[in-house]
Amino acid sequence: MEAPALLRTLALLSIWLLQVAVPGAMASYTIGVGRADTTGPVAEIVFVVENLQKQYGDLYTENNVMISATHSHSTPGGFMLHMLFDLTTFGFVRETFDAMVNGITKSIERAHNAMVPGRLFITHGEVHGVNINRSPFAYLNNPKVERDKYRDNVDKILTQIQFYKEEDNKPLGVINWFAIHPTSMNNTNHLVSSDNIGYASILFERIMNNDSLIGKGPFVAAFASSNLGDVSPNTRGPKCEFSGNNCSKQYTCPGRKEMCFASGPGRNMFESTSIIANKMFKESWEVIGPLRVVHRYVNMVEQTAEYYNETTQRTETVRGCEPAMGYSFAAGTIDGPGSFSFRQGTTSANPMWNVVRNLLATPTNEDIKCHGAKPILLATGHMSLPYEWQPKIVATQVALIGNVVIAGVPGEFTTMSGRRLREAIKTVMNDASDDETSVIVAGLCNTYSDYVTTPEEYQIQRYEGASTIFGPHTLTIYLKQYQELVTAAILVSIRKKVSPFLLLRKNKVDCEKKIKDKGNNNTFDQKKDVESGPTPVDLRKKTLVSFVTPVLYDTPIWGKNFGDCIKQPQKLARPGDIVTAVFVSGHPRNNLMTESSFLTIERLGIDEVWLPVATDANWETKFEWQRMSMVLGSSQVTITWQVPEDIKAGEYRIRHNGYYRYILGGIFPYYGVSNHFQVLSTESSCCKRHYYE
């Protein structure tokens, strides 16, 4: 029986800790950068904070720690705790969860220990040819007057914050925000991968860290999530799987049993990922002013907000709904089609599927009315067996650094949702300062609660609308929440007699009055800190369900030992060639090799010492594990290496590192190496080919 192949591309979750060194100083921050091996995206913030408080006391809390996922659809799952998100991995996976929490904690520890006085710069640039809107019909349902403000139906701006050491202006790291889904590696992929944005991080760090192994140099680069909800990297658009015909407007392929897929600019998903990453990688101004961070938990089901209805020309009071998923959620997207006969754009229910739905939980009439255009496929707000299926309480957070606002949002905002959020925050900021404000939408922060569309996009019920779990006015509620948080952050500065901006050009008395008037109209007391909000349920205290079977034992292939190389690489390789070796192995889950590697490509140095030149974090390597016998517990791994064009000529070998579980108990390490092989440089390769021609 063949198990899914495994490529352990190192997913680096990078954390920057920013703190004003002196409250009155305007240009000096205490900055630390750190990274750790997590092989995946974000975990709930509370678990990380608990780990930090064991070491640092109350220095780090939910109020001043913001965790934003770099995002990938090709990593180990089972760590989200809420039942719906862990279904595809057969439930909760403890190994993944622990690796996630420990890795994030370790990255913050490293950033803390590396803190130095530093400076921040922000820059913006356009990136073209890498993203398209995967739900254009929903986008077109937004008001034309609003759409006409923007040239494109997706954001093309990449925002970068650069961190420099104050003493010598040495670059410490960067965070980049760009709206693109990391789905260049589509759902036919069975390899673990950090996808296009992870590869962009690797490219950036490779240049800044010179000859360091991936993830080991001092400079840290992160490509973080923004308002990517309806954004695809598959720029060729949707085509029918086999025929290559154009898909219908509902993104189906009539007449044949084939799925509607979108593909990227390359010949395959690996090449497409590389092209997108290189384009993202390819005039700034300094950020100065104090740092203010405000955090609040919000029960979305209990929230109300004012909404101006363009159709009725009236202002209405709207509210959040009990979480629910619509029919189009099951249809998937052009980046990864779903199952059965579900189609995007479904706005009416099917009696058969309603019967299936009601076996799990039946939505109330109030739920159906609240969700409006969404026919409810899963009434997750009423599903509590074996525990919560989706969150009702989410984390909202903003960080103000001078005139830069980072809005940490707990989901995937669509293009127009992100644009409206930026404008809403700028409205508050403009009441306090004439200086230019830069608003960054940092997606997938602290909590994950699926998608957020505009009310207009919601009516079309594409995948994103069907996955907007709190109903049509989810965004309306968030706009109110984030305006309140930004207002509160400014009021904190006013109370402490610290200008929140470098130059407060507006009359200070007028500014304070206007901001305080806003505060009086909101749900928090301007004389107090923002209330922390209701405490989310700690699902770790529940009996978490998992159908993932443990590793019982490993045995080597008959007549072999663990680590034996049973297929040797060719004796001679040139740049661009693929070198392959196969080893007898144990199960990779015996040890996740955190901060280490399942493989290394090694070159013989001048002092006869083998030097690692690549690991399983490099894009040019792949690590594929295959179970050869379920009964005997025997396995093998195939390691491939595509020789880079800029490789140094010399003698090389492939090394495999692993652990096996002994049938009588215990887990033990092993390693194996291949035969040596020669790699020619580009010049030698050209000459060699010319000689044989």
TrEMBL record:
Signal peptide extent: 1-27
Cofactor: record remark: Binds 1 zinc ion per subunit.
The protein's required cofactors: Zn(2+)
Enzyme Commission code(s) on record: 3.5.1.23
Top-rank EC class of the record's enzyme: hydrolase
Biological process annotations from GO: ceramide catabolic process; long-chain fatty acid biosynthetic process; sphingosine biosynthetic process
Pfam assignment, any one: Ceramidse_alk_C
Domain Neutral/alkaline non-lysosomal ceramidase N-terminal: 48-479
UniProt: Zn(2+) binding residues: H71, H181, E412, Y451
Sorted UniProt keywords: Hydrolase, Lipid metabolism, Metal-binding, Signal, Sphingolipid metabolism, Zinc
Residues annotated as catalytic: S232
Domain Neutral/alkaline non-lysosomal ceramidase C-terminal: 526-679
GO CC terms of this entry: extracellular region; membrane
Reactions mediated catalytically: an N-acylsphing-4-enine + H2O = sphing-4-enine + a fatty acid
Entry's Gene Ontology molecular function annotations: metal ion binding; N-acylsphingosine amidohydrolase activity
UniProt family annotation: Belongs to the neutral ceramidase family.
Protein name: Neutral ceramidase
Lineage: Eukaryota, Metazoa, Ecdysozoa, Arthropoda, Hexapoda
